[in-house]
Amino acid sequence: MVSSSQEVRIGFYVCHCGHNIASMVDCPEVARYVETLPGVVLSRDYKYMCSDPGQELVQQDIREFALNRVVVASCSPLLHEHTFRKATAAGGLNPFFFHMVNIREHDSWVHTDRAEATAKAKALARAAIRRVAHHRPLEVKQVPIHPDVLVVGGGIAGIHAALTLANAGRKVTLVEREPTIGGHMAKFDKTFPTLDCAACILTPKMSEVGAHENITLWTCSDVVKMDGYVGNYTVTVRRRPRYIDEELCTGCQECISNCVYKEPKFVDEFNEGLGKRKPIYIPFPQSTPQVVLIDPEVCLNFKRGVLTDRCKKTCVEACGDRKAITFTQREEIRELQVGTIIVATGFQTFDVKRAPQYGYGSFPNVYTALEAERLVNASGPTGGEVILRDGTQPKAIGIIHCVGSRDKKTNRWCSRVCCMYSMKLAHLLKEHSGAEIYNFYIDIRAPGKSYEEFYDKLNEEGVHFIRGRVGEVTDWAMTPEEEGKLIIRVEDTLAGFVRRIPVNMVVLSAGLEPQADAQEVRRLFNMSCGTEGFFLERHPKLAPVNTFTDGIFIAGCCQGPRDIPDTVAQAGAAAAEALVLIDRGHVEQEPNTAYILPDCSGCKSCLPLCPYTAITFDATTHRAVINEALCKGCGTCVGSCPSGSIGQNLFEDEEVFSEIEGVLSE
Amino acid sequence: MSKPKVAFYWCASCGGCEETVVDLAEDILGVVEKVDIVLWPVAMDFKYRDLEALPDRAITATLLNGAIRSSEQEEMAVLLRRKSQYLIAYGSCAHLGGIPGLANQFEREAILRFNYEEAPSVVNEARTRPQTVTEEEGRRPHLPELRHVVRSLDQVVAVDYYLPGCPPTPNLTRAAFDALLSGRLPPKGSVLAPDIALCDECPRKASRPADVAFTQFFRPHQKVLDEEKCFLPQGVVCMGPATRSGCGAQCPGGNMPCTGCFGPTSRVRDQGAKILSSLCANLGAREEKEINRVLENIPDPVGTFYRYGLASSRLRRRADLTNV
Asked: How far apart, in Å, do the first and last CA atoms of chain A sit?
């Protein structure tokens, strides 16, 4: 190991990169110039430094000329920094005695004057030569990866990711805030374009999750805190009471039939409010876990959520020896250790009341698409018959696309699934009611496998497609035929005039939005959001399920609107990315981390600035402390420490200042 | 054996530093007992020619306060440097340029014009300005020339030690004398004060929350200040986090925020830039418009963040440097 007090002996190499650099930079001239700089023992130009002979040259020279610093001027460090660090290490030096200069992306590729580009290459090389003299040996640390995984969100994305990992033998905890997993998909009747029954393909996967020996399923639960770093996350989960012991409940549902309420009379969330349920209930027949729950807001034994003991408790009687009903159940806070986390928290649908011109809430026969899903579902509130809120059956139905999508007033993005689900609903509503169906669309977007064919099929079935954004839905009749109907006013942009289409039922195809609490979840897991509020992937093409926090992955609609096939593919990818970390067993930590000097005054200015929450305050020493494993070396704290008491490996003040002086001096 | 010789001198300063020497109170007697004061214009009568007559390095230590802004001050700094073994920059002005250094925001011509012609209190119809040489009754008196920029002492001559503060506290002065007389001196170039920021010794330290998220700034007179709470969460700019300690946090003790007179720690090259970086990073606002609204509450950023350090900072001077 070379100590910094020893004489500095720098080897400098300038790479031609074929013609990439040499065509714009006079490489031999740069090499000749650098040879004259203090501390430089040898200076060479070479055709391809990244080639095997190029790397061997570095290793040989280190031994032969007793070099203790190496500088290579070539391409971006993103490409080959690692290559040359390895070569430096193979030559017997600490790899961090190497420094790289980018004279391709930063120079030859962006200049048109050879003399200027050569002068710039010299300046950049001079900066590196000055800087590298201050380099110190550094160590790459390995951080072990905890093999367990947390999956947040039990929709189809979370279910698929959890099963993939569990089937690979990993222990998974799946946390879901609703009383059952299944998410939005569980509410669908059929899926496009194949028209398979959503329940038939989803519920087996749900049961598999419930029964899997490697999966711990926590429903009615929220993640409230996450600490730690890749491979070593500590997650705090709040488990809300369902007033039923999950271990003891057999799912027989006798308690439900024996509830003191003989008839269901409370709003049934699972059926989008179209049906009713009792205070003790199970969201839907295939709920997972198969465990009932009590709604303390309406159960007679509670008063506004507080236990009163004033009910006859016929449910407890019915439960008998199983003793599963526990009115005294409390909220529990549980802590988990995991190495990786998959966030699959899904979406919410656009609140169609934000588009008041379509009359939702004013006209009872205006429905959201999810309500329409429940209406055509055999296990829905009407048993699959299309019976409207006023008890009638529709003869004509209008489906309005792009409600809360592609709209500057609400959400600008295309929600990707609405065209297809609108056509699916058109097919199902026609099948279930025999009504005439009108689709009002801006463009039909059907770019998936067999999607365009599905559109053709709908055309053949006689579903009407009217191109135009609907102006309003009104009950103001202008002709006797319109009396008692909902009239859809739209400019038919293909026919070229404004039309009034009277219908009995309107379905609003609401777009997809980030969950209402997406920002809190983002902060909780240290992620970023795009402008529209969906979680941001590390790279839109090359790292679509990674986030900017290592070990945290995203899947499904929380990253942006997508359909079920894409969601499942992405969930599988997220599981695979987690497995990559788990199977390698450790991550290597770049040593460019920040550290607190003993002269920290404890002013706390740095604490809120760290984007990776790597800085904490030690209350006993009254100093800030940086967790090296969490630090990504962004330098935010270093630059902003008002007393200069935070240093950073590879970015020490003397290194940076001498680099600046090198660029500016001549 | 003769007693060590000590000199006190002042350049562009307010006189407060001289006051600190007197503030040593009875301790000054101990000092006077151990040393010979060979120059102290504020208190005793000495002639420059006596000083010139001394052999070089005859003075053990010179404590020079004030910034250098005139030709005479520069001349004296050079002379005292030559005559002294140790030259100590005493107080913020000699150390960093101090309050006079704020003049570097303006060109010399603008300063002269304002002070001799435009200031509301000036009556000078002939627009007379001080001249370096004038002719009066057959004599030609010389006056020092005002330089283009105000400089800290070490921008003019080599400095051995720095005693920070506006003014330095009696404790630090006493400790410096003790070190000088006993010969237990730190490496040359040291600032003779702790190298840790003021928060370390501030009695309000514990009350600082982790996240101050500034939404508005107040100047100390615009608000009734809590006497125990850290100033930053009260929205008052305190230079403490960016300022060397050693003063005993006297200003926070008197319910006023630190203004930064002890200068930065040894690890910082530009005190104003550092506190700006820290305060701005801790703004609660995220939108540019909102950020500007918050920052508008600091009406004089240079006077706030560079009150003592402008002359020695990395900021360019508003001056013609070709003829310094």
From this structure: 32
